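WARN  no MSA supplied for this record, continuing single-sequence
INFO  ligand: zinc ion
INFO  echoing inputs
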Amino acid sequence: MDPYELEIGYKLFVKKQMDNKDTIKAEILSIKHNPLSFYVHYINYNKRLDEWVSPTSLKLDDIFSIEIPKKKKKTEDKTTRKSIITEKDEHTDISYKLKNVRTIQFDNFQLEAWYFSPYPKIIAEQPIIYICSFCLFYFGFEDQYKSHNCKIRHPPGNEIYRKNGLSFFELDGHVQKNYCRNLCLLSKLFLDHKTLYYDIDPFLFYILCKEEEDGFHFVGYFSKEKDSLQGYNVACLLTMPHCQRKGYGRVLIDFSYLLSRKEGLVASPEKPLSDLGLLSYRKYWKEKVFEYLSINRDMEISIAEISKATSITEEDIGAVLSEEGSIKFYDGEPCFILKDWMNEKEGVDETCLEWEPTVKANTEIK
Ligand code: ACO
Ligand code: ZN
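INFO  complex generated
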C-alpha cells in the first residue's frame, strides 16, 4: 500500500522507533506532510509510548494486516452533513490525544514529555520548554530562561518536614496560586489518567525537595483535596522522570499516610491509579502490612487493626493480601501467611514532622 493512502484511524503494524525490534499493531492518530510522518498509538500499550514515525517504520506490504475504520467505510460520501460532523468531532478529540510538548529542560536534564499538557500553544510548539525548577515558570527560549534570574530557592509555603536532605513544603492552591498552576501544567506532562484541575483552590500540594548547595530542588509532589468526601489522601502523585526508581515515590506515599495517621483517618489514593501508580502503591501496601505482621508475629491480628495502625484502608489491605496469596483459611478462620521477602526501605520519620492537621475528612479510624 502507498503510505499516502493512509488516513487517521487506520490500524497497522509499526516498527517501534525507540527499540526498532518487533512490529506492534498501532493506530494512526495524526498525519504530517513534508516530510510524511505518522503519529501512532501502540494498541494495548501506555499512551506515553505514542510517537511520530516515518513511512519506513510501517508494515505496508501485507495489505490484509491493515485495518480500515468502519466509520470511514460508511461515511465515504463526504458531501453528507453527518460525515462532516464526524470528522470535526474526531479532530477536536484527537488534538488532546497528541503530545503537544516534545522536550522540557528541568534542572539541566532534558526530559521527553509523556502526555499532552495545556501549555500556551506558542510555548508548547518550541522544540524545548525551559522550566525553572524553583518557581516552575516556563519559557520557550533559552535566553529568556537565563535572564529570568530566579530569586526563589524553595517552593513558596511552609516547610513541614526535613530529614536526611529531604524536605516537604505544604502549599495551598488558593494562596500559592501561580506556583500550583505551574505545577499542574508540569505534572500533566507525565500524568495521563487525571484531568488537570483548573480549579486548584480546593487542593493542598505537598512538594518533596532535595536540599542542595543552591537551594531546594523539586523531586516530586502529591496533591490532596482539603476536604475529601471519599476519604482520599492523594489526588495526584508524581516523581519527576529523572528522579524515578530511586525510592522517592515511596517517600511521597509514606508521607501521605503519615499525614492521614496524624489526622486520625484511614485513607486511600484517588482512583483510577495509573499503571506506575498501581505498581508503587501495591509495593508500599505490601511492605507496610508485612512489616506490621512481622512485628506482631505472635499475636492474633485483624485487618481492622492493621488498618488502624497504618491508615491504609481495609479494602486496600485485603486486596494486597489476597493478591499475594497471604490469606489462608484454617477451620474456616482466615490466617496470614508471612513471607520473608521484606527488606529495609527508606520511609519518613514521624518525629521530623512539624504539622498539625487542620482539615477533617470523613473516614475516621474506628
Ligand atoms: N516499572 C516497574 N516497577 C515500578 C516502576 C516501573 N517503571 N516504577 C515504580 N515501580 C514499582 C517498583 O516496585 C518500585 O520499587 P523498586 O524500585 O524497589 O522495585 C516501586 O514501585 C516504588 O518505586 P519508587 O522509586 O519509590 O517510585 P518512583 O519515585 O519511581 O515514583 C511514581 C513512582 C510516582 C508512580 C512515578 O512512576 C510517576 O511519577 N509516574 C508518572 C505519574 C504517575 O503515574 N503517578 C501516579 C498516578 S496515581 C495517582 O495520582 C493517585
Ligand atoms: Zn524561577
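Residues 74-92 have pLDDT under 50 and may be disordered.
INFO  checksum written, moving to next record
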